From TrEMBL, chain A:
Residues 22-238 form the Erythromycin biosynthesis protein CIII-like N-terminal domain. It holds the Pfam family EryCIII-like_N. One of its GO terms (biological process) is antibiotic biosynthetic process. GO terms for molecular function: hexosyltransferase activity; UDP-glycosyltransferase activity. Belongs to the glycosyltransferase 28 family. Residues 258-403 form the Erythromycin biosynthesis protein CIII-like C-terminal domain. The keyword Glycosyltransferase applies. It comes from Kitasatospora phosalacinea. Keywords: Glycosyltransferase, Transferase. InterPro entries: EryCIII-like_C, EryCIII-like_N, Glycosyltransferase_28, UDP_glucos_trans. This is Glycosyl transferase. It comes from the Bacteria.
From TrEMBL, chain B:
Pfam families: EryCIII-like_C, EryCIII-like_N. Residues 23-228 form the Erythromycin biosynthesis protein CIII-like N-terminal domain. This is Glycosyl transferase. It comes from Kitasatospora phosalacinea. GO terms for molecular function: hexosyltransferase activity; UDP-glycosyltransferase activity. The keyword Transferase applies. InterPro entries: EryCIII-like_C, EryCIII-like_N, Glycosyltransferase_28, UDP_glucos_trans. Keywords: Glycosyltransferase, Transferase.
Length: 421, 396
């Protein structure tokens, strides 16, 4: 079959789809990965055939515009809000719909080219990142099934639907009108790579798929295979948060590194090249090992703890390695990752503004690190998360589900009852 | 489980293994590609992580050095196979074994459950023997290793078992547990029982679907012209036949797309209006919009063309190209010209047949169907998983 994958041009939404894309190729299917040109180097480096469509949109600027800036500094939202939208207030909904409008702008920039390419290439199936709204529009226009692929944050995250309900926001509906296609309010099926221990139930049209880390290209160094000097903590800050928030996150990362170096024999700092510049003073500590451009999964299993920003890829890579986590998050979406990991007993979770500036913050983080490293319950909860992930069908095994959806518009009959955690 | 894939510094050897490596990853296994540092850009931009292995082998340089013997062997293959003081075999050992200790050392530290190695990476098979795990040879193209005949030849080569003896291993017969072969079986000599047939899945390096292709004219065939780089790197510019091919097809009622490395673009000169040149996109992303192809007879190119059911004309210079191209011609799906036969008139006649001769088109469709009926890499992974699970593996 021919499977057209599409995502908006953001690595943290492309990376989680790479394994299922590789799996389709490995099963002998034809695959294309479409996004705007900005994804070209990232998609091509992941070994996948890329189709550039539409024009790039400055997402960082859109995300930080005045109406959306508050998204980056939120108080704690109600517990389990992704599946209990009734708990959200009007401001919080306004913010979510704002994100929906941002993705509609993105979809608008992709739609014409994507549709033109799809009409010429004639896929049997569209698999789209869950918030990449051009995907379902094109599938609807072609009259073929569409599968919504979650990126590892628990919950369906339907930012394009008013109050997570059945009514689309006008900007989303307008995309369908523009190409004369009927609204597709529900994807034909969902794929969810979340850990069973942290995910939210999506429903009978969803299949869980084992998270397989793809963290970008890299050459494995030999140090992860060598005996450790003692305890090892990884401090990593995702490329997304540094790209969206620039240098404003560096103070916090510095605090984390300082706290970690005072608590462990070795601290692996995995950040972007750009962040290294701003972190120079704290990186001078001889316990620090710098790991830029190194895929996390190549060394995560050798760490006792990982301190991070709550990105889905980092959270799941650590969960798969059975490593306890300290997540310090800003936006509501990574905060869901942190909160769910904490609820599973495998992590502690803070919001960025809950960590005071300067020494006070370092002291607080040191206390949390001592707790996470000292109490074995975190490690066993983390291992349970890992076992849950490993028990799920692999991307390779999930190809049969996609074949079924492409053939008859339905998933395979579910043989195993869904396990609730 | 952990899978170590050892590749020689020959890009096409890696490209043909990449889909199996990706298939292991998609099945949830840990995968590392072991290659010399000069390959790091090529490997890391293929979606898989790499570990750098010592060594800086210049395969092209070695082949240049042995070119005259290789060309001699092309004329008299029987004389060249085996025998003492075989210069080509000595060079082969030089080309393939300089990384031996480094591969064994890394494998002993990382402890894979299975090793896959291309034909030019026997160190991977040695490492598998050292660890007591399955060692899988992955063929890159037309290759009789993995055939009944090939097994006999290997064990007769002087010094073939030396690298095993170096590690105190007594090995007889074929050291590979299995040989994975992406060639459609009808093009290969009969396989030994350890040969695993695998569907060729195209991977031709990173890239995008080509832009700048003019829309297809209704009822007018589009023919791809391409020329591998290895052949000119080994033999020199005289083996770069694209300019002659373009002149030879002048006047044929078809559109031609030349997929060419930007560095070679100037060598083409001015192009007729029905010929466009593209900065070489990954070949398969171009071929699915073409009706036929003319190329240098590289196995990877032949497999790509088979995958899309294209009639092909192969114009060859070296023995490995001759072998696959002769097999292709025998199947009826293509035409083979050795370079010395490739006059302008012969090329012109052959290209005209590619688009007019329905017999070739039918045979190409048959060959495509045969390829698609071979087990996909995902299925081969399942078979190799079982093999690894049943192998007794001494640990610590």
């Amino acid at each position: 079959m021919r499977v057209l994958f599409t995502t908006f041009p953001w690595h943290s939404h492309h990376f989680p789809m790479v394994p299922i894309e590789q799996a389709c190729l490995a099963a002998g299917h034809e695959v294309r990965v479409a996004s705007t040109p900005a994804l070209q180097p990232i998609a091509a480096a992941s070994g996948l055939p890329f189709v550039p469509v539409g024009r790039d949109v400055n997402l960082a600027a859109l995300s930080n515009d005045r109406s959306r800036a508050a998204w980056h500094r939120q108080e704690r939202w109600p517990q389990d809000w992704p599946i209990h939208p009734e708990l959200l207030n009007d401001d919080q909904f306004a913010m979510i719909e704002n994100l929906g409008r941002m993705q509609a702008v993105m979809a608008d920039a992709m739609l014409d080219d994507l549709l033109e390419y799809a009409r010429a290439w004639r896929p049997d199936l569209v698999v789209h990142d869950a918030v990449t709204l051009a995907g379902p529009v094109v599938a609807s226009a072609l009259g073929i099934p569409s599968v919504s692929h979650l990126w590892g944050t628990p919950g369906p995250q339907r930012i394009e639907m008013r109050r997570f309900g059945s009514e689309p926001i006008p900007e989303y509906a307008a995309l369908y009108e523009r190409v004369g296609a009927p609204l597709r309010a529900e994807p034909t099926a969902w794929l969810d790579p979340c850990a069973p221990g942290t995910r939210y139930e999506i429903g009978p049209t969803c299949r869980q798929v084992r998270y397989v880390p793809y963290n970008g290209p890299g050459v494995m160094p030999l140090w992860p295979l060598e005996p450790r000097r003692g305890t090892r903590i990884c401090v990593t800050w995702g490329a997304t948060s540094t790209a969206l928030r620039g240098d404003s996150v560096l103070d916090l990362v510095s605090q984390c590194i300082r706290a970690a170096t005072s608590m462990a024999d070795e601290v692996v700092v995995a950040v972007t090249d750009r962040a290294v510049e701003g972190l120079k003073p704290v990186l001078a500590d001889d316990r620090v090992r710098l790991a830029t451009n190194l895929p996390l999964h190549l060394f995560m299993g050798t760490c006792d703890l990982v301190v991070h920003h709550g990105g889905a890829g980092t959270s799941l890579t650590a969960a798969l390695a059975g490593v306890p986590q300290l997540a310090i998050t800003a936006r509501p979406e990574p905060s869901v990752n942190g909160a769910r990991l904490a609820a599973a007993g495998a992590a502690q979770h803070f919001l960025t503004h809950e960590v005071p500036a300067g020494e006070d913050g370092v002291r607080l983080l040191r206390g949390e690190i001592a707790e996470l490293m000292g109490f074995p319950g975190y490690r066993s909860a983390a291992r349970e998360l890992a076992q849950g992930i490993l028990a799920q069908p692999t991307p390779a095994a999930t190809v049969a589900e996609l074949e079924s959806v492409a053939r008859g518009g339905q998933l395979l009959p579910s043989a195993v009852p869904l396990v609730h955690h | 489980m952990r899978v170590l894939v050892v590749t020689s510094p020959w890009p096409t050897h890696y490209f043909v293994m990449q889909p199996l490596a990706g298939a292991f990853r998609a099945a949830g296994h840990e995968v590392l590609i072991a290659a010399q540092a000069s390959m790091s850009d090529l490997v890391t931009r293929s979606g898989l992580p790499m570990v750098a292995i010592d060594g800086d082998v210049d395969l092209v340089g070695i082949r240049r050095r042995t070119l005259s013997r290789e060309l001699q062997a092309r004329e008299k293959p029987a004389q060249a196979a085996g025998g003492e003081g075989n210069e080509v075999f000595d060079s082969w050992r030089e080309a393939t074994l300089s990384n031996l200790d480094s591969v064994v050392e890394f494998a002993s530290a990382w402890l894979p459950d299975l090793i896959v190695a291309d034909t030019m990476s026997p160190a991977g098979l040695v490492a598998a023997r050292v660890l007591g795990i399955p060692g899988i040879r992955h063929l890159w193209g037309w290759d009789f290793l993995g055939s009944v005949e090939g097994e006999k030849l290997l064990s007769a080569l002087p010094g073939f078992y030396e690298p095993y003896e170096r590690y105190g291993l007594k090995v007889t017969g074929d050291p590979a547990t299995r040989t994975v072969d992406p060639c459609p079986p009808s093009l290969q000599p009969p396989g030994s029982p350890t040969r695993i047939s695998m569907q060729y899945v195209p991977y031709n390096g990173p890239g995008s679907v080509p832009s700048g292709l003019p829309p297809r004219a209704e009822g007018r065939p589009r023919i791809c012209l391409t020329w591998g780089r290895s052949i000119t790197r080994i033999i020199g510019d005289k083996a770069f036949l694209l300019p002659q091919i373009i002149r030879a097809v002048d006047g044929i009622d078809a559109d031609f797309v030349v997929a060419i490395d930007p560095a070679d673009r100037d060598g083409l000169g001015e192009l007729p209006p029905n010929v466009v040149a593209l900065d070489a996109p990954p070949l398969h992303l171009l071929l699915d919009t073409c009706d036929a192809i003319v190329h240098q007879g590289g196995s990877g190119t032949v497999y790509n063309a088979i995958r899309y059911g294209l009639p092909q004309l192969a114009i060859t210079h070296m023995a490995d190209q001759d072998n696959i191209s002769a097999a292709l011609e025998k199947s009826g799906a293509g035409i083979h010209l050795r370079s010395e036969e490739a006059t302008a008139e012969a090329i012109r006649r052959a290209v005209a047949r590619l688009v007019d001769d329905s017999g070739i088109a039918h045979a190409a469709a048959r060959l495509r169907a045969e390829m698609l009926s071979q087990p996909a890499p995902a299925q081969v992974v399942a078979e190799l998983e079982q093999l690894a699970a049943s192998a007794s593996r001494p640990r610590d």
